Description:
It contains 16 helices and 17 strands. 40% of the residues lie in helices and 21% in strands.
Amino acid sequence: MGKSRKLSFYFHIPFCLSKCYYCDFNSYAGLNWLIPQYVDTLEKEMQLHAKDVWEFEVKTIYFGGGTPSLLPAKSIAYMLESCSKLFNMPSNLEVTLEANPGTVDQSFLTQLKESGVNRLSLGVQSFSDNELKLLGRIHSANEAREAFFMARQAGFENINMDLLYALPQQAVSDWRNNLVEAIKLNPDHFSLYPLTLEPSTPLANAVASGSLPKPDADLAADMYLLALDKLAQEGYSHYEISNWALPGKECQHNMTYWKNEPYLGLGAGAHSHLGGYRWVNVSSPVEYVKHLASLKTKLSPRPYFNNRWVDNIENIDRDLEIAEAVILSLRLEEGVNLTDFAHRFGVELYSIYQQQQINELVELGLIAKNQHSIRLTTKGKLLGNEVFSRFLPKSRG
Ligand code: SF4
């Protein structure tokens, strides 16, 4: 058997200098003292999985957070070296690291590039200092620009920029200005997300108490349409609902998720999807380190069963796998390819979802279909959840 099966690796780095006002990610301020032990524990978790995934080739590696750029560059280099020793890792794979512009300097970025990281995802969020303050970000707009220039100087030829829109008090003209400023830097990729008010975050509380206005859904739609228009003019292809790329710069790691392919998540709160199972590690970094420290490194296959560093494990039945594959593919511009679907699942899409059900969505203007594929229309992208819910298995719909 050849080593053609591919597996993406995600490393969760849950440390932040302070908590942004909108954030409910699994990230913690004030825990930096744990970083050295945490890195050693990630290495140990890699060892525990090595036997189980020996037949896979590493497809992509992604350091997400949290703030992975808080780690010393030598720790990233150490993890990549361990990865190449333990797994079948080709030399030209995509290796992404999320960086907060308030935490990087030239020397760090240069070392990072030398360590093998070849894609940087910069959490810029806005080019307005007022908006950055409202969000509780630790950096200014100018620091974001400087981080971008330093990354180019360090040799990064693949840089993503994250921006948020639909902020409280943000007008369409403010958003246009953010887009114009971002485009001037000519990043290779954009991820644009509307702000979601997560319960109990300071920003959600401020909106609930009336000290900030509620973001307006119609304005959010206008901002999305503006981004579609402007980025198309600048040559970015809109390949996923929230993602745009210059030719050849689509994020291969995220394609793993959207194509419902296997991935292994390491670190506190990291999610994995492999071998018909999905599991999530304990979210507390302290607990994660503690549970793994007490384990012997030699474990049987499927080390995620019956071990206390794993919080939840779920068997993915066929109905759910099919529904997830359809929903995730619909996020992509190319949509669901009917031939690929039949090849993967051994049945036609229309034998699972009735023509009538699909035609209804076509009549509502939410999806477009032809003999090769079904995909979201622009209206469908704005009302994605409405469409996705129709593809869930009956028991979960
Ligand atoms: S830097 Fe990212 S992960 Fe950290 S608090 Fe801010 S939004 Fe959350």
